[in-house]
Specification:
Blueprint lengths: L1 H25 L3 E2 L2 E2 L2 E2 L3 E2 H29 L5
Antiparallel strand pairs: 1-4, 2-3
Length: 78
């Protein structure tokens, strides 16, 4: 059973890597982002999307830990 789970896991990671590779190869046109007066250098669209994905993957769990920790502290004491 472990062998089947390992094969399925490897295939899932491989498919995800191929999807990301296809996305990066399809989105090579350069863009400049402007936000609140800040401007970025011209880079491919995929760079901004992947950076946004990575930032979200880092911030999401941190917010979850913060909210969970805050709930534990504010729980009523008996």
């Amino acid at each position: 059973m472990r062998g089947v789970k390992r094969v399925v896991s490897v295939l899932a990671v491989l498919v995800a890597a191929l999807v990301v590779l296809a996305f990066v190869l399809e989105n090579q046109q350069g863009v400049v982002l402007l936000f609140l007066g800040w401007s970025t250098a011209q880079m491919p669209v995929a760079v901004f999307v992947v950076v946004g994905l990575i930032v979200g993957m880092l911030i999401g769990p941190l917010l979850g830990v913060f909210v969970r920790g805050r709930r534990v502290r504010t729980a009523p004491r008996e």
